[in-house]
Write a structure and sequence with these properties.
269 residues, mainly alpha, 8 helices, 61% helix, flat
Amino acid sequence: MAKLGLLAAAIVLLVVAPARAQPDQPDVLPKEFSCMTAHNKGASKFWLAKSKCVMKCLTLFWKGLGPENDCLPPYGGITASCVNETMFLKGAENKFEATVTKVCLTGPGANCPECYGAGGCDVSASQDLVQEQEGQFDSFVPGVFCERAGAAVVEQKCQLGTEKTLMKAFGSRNKCYTNCFVDQRSGGDPATCLPPATDPDTLLCFTKVDQKSAAAIDKYCNESLIPDAKPDCGGSYPDGATWTHLIDLAVDGTIAQTFCASPSGAFLD
C-alpha cells in the first residue's frame, strides 16, 4: 500500500536523525530527568486518548451516526473537541500540554532540561511537542482504518483491534525506554538506552512487547480463523509484525530528543 510505504519512510527519517548525548548525571539533574520522563509518559497517554477519540468516531460512523471525515485528520465535530477542547481544556492535546508545563516548568521544583533549549518547556514549546506527536499519530490513522465506508463487521473489528493493540505497544515500548534510563542513571551507561538500544534488559523488554503486539493483531485479523477479516484497501493489509515494526519506529524517532543531555553551556543557568 502506497500510504504505508510513505509512512514507513517518514518514520525512518526520524530514527536516523543525529542523536544527542545521553541523559546522564550531572548533565541532567533529577528534576530535569523527571521532566523527560513526564514527556515520555505524557506522549503515551496522549496517543491512547487521541486513539479513543478516533475509534469512537468511527464506531459511530459505522452505525450511521456521524460523518466519516470527522474521524480523519484534521478531524471535525465532536472528534475535534475530543482532541482539543478549547473551553475547559479537557481534550487529549490539552492534557498533554498541561502535564509537560506542570512537571517541567510550573510545578514544585520544576526544572526544564537545558538540552531542550531556551524556552524549551514554556507553553509554546509544549504545543510544539504535542504537534510533533500529533503528526506521528495522524500518519497511522488512514492506514490502520483504510476501509471505512463499506467495511464489514469483521473488517471493522480487525481495524479497531489493530488500533487498540498499537496504542498499547506504543506505551509499552516507551516504558521500556524509561525504565532503561532510570536503571542506567544509577551507575550504568544511559547511552546503551538510546536507539538503537543495546542494553540487554531493554532489548528483552522490546521483544516481549513486539511478540505480544504482533500476536494480538494477527488474532484480530486472522483470515484463516475469521474469513475476510482483513479490510480490502487495494492491497494487502499488513500483518501484526509489520504494524508493530512501524509503531516501534514511531517511538524510536522521539527518544533521543526526549532523553537528551546539555549540548553546551549556552543554556546553563
